[in-house]
Design brief:
Bound molecules: NADPH dihydro-nicotinamide-adenine-dinucleotide phosphate, magnesium ion
Strand content: 15-25%
Radius of gyration: 20 Å
Shape: globular
Order of helices and strands: EHEHEHEHEHEHEHEHHHHEEEHHHHH
Largest sheet: 7 strands, parallel
Helix content: 40-55%
Number of helices: 16
Structural class: alpha/beta
Distance between the termini: 51 Å
Number of strands: 11
């Protein structure tokens, strides 16, 4: 039996992870953590019987304790709960499927406790990659990517025995507004942006995909995971989402991973790496594909990507500023407080106005986040 813990169990990646557990029947879940959806979490506790579960608010934790009084499960709350779930002694693998830089401390704690990280929570690597990657190396802990593009890159690197990456081709669907002009984006409402053409995902990442901020976060994520410079990463819009990303080697060979857009594959690959297991679902049929097309991203209309490249080039806490400003701006957009085009405006403004720190530790990363939030609250 493989033993895993999941942060963000009730979300898009979390529920798909549990779907794999359900199908494969040889994984034991030892800990589950969620934000506030205690009804789903209760169902999951009953089905998978973890020894520990965590929810963010203590009020909700109290209610869940009452609901699960007949079960042998410990219920915790807050950061203490997340840290306990991330370091639950029985688990070998931690699936980080929580959303946002809230994942930093639990991910670090899990690595310190020797857990293999199946990483979906990209915001953590974007903001603390300079801490997480050396720590994982020191502790000899693998960080296995769950993000589909990074899983594709990781799969393309298998068997290469250290052959250097010349270039990464990071594919992007282009999101629901590909081809639109700035004028047309002016009136975008949350419900328009929540419709992604190829992938069904959580709300925050769906908005990020529409602004190309998600691709920007993925560029930074790729830099940390594969130790490449930003100018070795070429973002290519590929609306069919069939080529999930590719690696070009020194001799010009390009190795890619292709498939239907289904997150079960990268999740399962991370859980069983290096083994491949059977996976049901729609298969790629080349005869069904009318064509595969490629375009340069429209970086004038969608500023998210350019700002991310700038953030990683400036380094220090600038990727944190980029990410924190986006997290806050997206939450405000979803709450109907700001317009769609204000999202990149806020990110850019915060990148200019927030104090620079060259080598931020976790404390300073969190201080930067607080400063960004203060700035946004005072201005928008
Ligand atoms: P969802 O919004 O669907 O799920 C987020 C999860 O985090 C939920 O379980 C939620 O709990 C939990 N959560 C939120 N706030 C807290 C909190 N304060 N404490 C504890 N748990 C909390 O997100 P996704 O699954 O879409 O994304 C998760 C991560 O994976 C993100 O970093 C995203 O970028 C990345 N990713 C996602 C992909 C996808 O296809 N969805 C693809 C590639 C990467 P609750 O339900 O109770 O609110
Ligand atoms: Mg992705």
């Amino acid at each position: 039996m493989k033993k895993i813990a999941i942060l963000g169990a009730t979300g898009s990646i979390g529920t798909q992870t549990l779907e794999i557990v359900r199908r494969q029947k040889d994984i034991q879940v030892t800990a589950l953590a969620a934000g506030s959806n205690i009804s789903l979490l209760e169902d999951q506790i009953r089905e998978f019987q973890p020894v520990l579960a965590a929810v963010w608010e203590e009020e909700k934790a109290k209610e869940l304790r009452i609901r699960t009084a007949d079960l042998n499960v410990k219920i915790l709350s807050g950061m203490e709960g997340l840290l306990a779930a991330a370091t639950e002694p029985g688990a070998e693998i931690l699936v980080t499927a929580i959303v946002g830089m809230l994942g930093i401390r639990p991910t670090i704690a899990a690595i310190q406790n020797g857990k293999v990280i199946a990483l979906a929570n990209k915001e953590t690597l974007v903001t603390a990659g300079h801490i997480i990657m050396p720590l994982a190396k020191e502790r000899n802990v693998p960080i296995l990517p769950v993000d589909s593009e990074h899983s594709a890159i990781f799969q393309s690197l298998q068997g290469e025995r250290g052959n250097a990456i010349h270039k990464i081709i990071l594919t992007a669907s282009g999101g629901p507004f590909r081809g639109k002009t700035i004028g047309e984006l002016q009136s975008i409402r949350p419900e328009d942006a929540l419709k992604h053409p190829n992938w069904a995902m959580g709300r925050k990442i769906t908005i990020d995909s529409s602004t190309l901020v998600n691709k920007g976060l993925e560029v930074i994520e790729a830099k940390w995971l594969f130790d490449v410079e930003p100018d070795q990463i070429q973002v290519t819009v590929h609306p069919q989402s069939v080529i999930h990303s590719a690696v070009e080697f020194e001799d010009g060979a390009v190795i890619a991973q292709l498939g239907t857009p289904d997150m079960h594959l990268p999740i399962q690959y991370a859980l069983y790496y290096p083994k491949r297991r059977s996976l049901k679902g729609k298969r790629l049929d080349l005869f069904d594909l009318k064509s595969l097309t490629f375009e340069r991203p429209d970086t004038k209309t969608f500023r998210g990507l350019v700002l991310a490249f700038e953030a990683i080039k400036r380094g220090g806490n600038v990727p944190t500023i980029f990410n924190a400003a986006n997290e806050k701006a997206v939450a405000m957009f979803l709450a109907g407080k700001i317009g769609y085009l204000t999202i990149p405006e806020i990110i850019e403004e915060c990148m200019e106005q927030t104090r620079f720190r060259a080598h931020p530790d976790v404390e300073e990363i969190l201080e930067t986040e607080a400063e960004v939030y203060e700035l946004i609250e005072s201005r928008w």
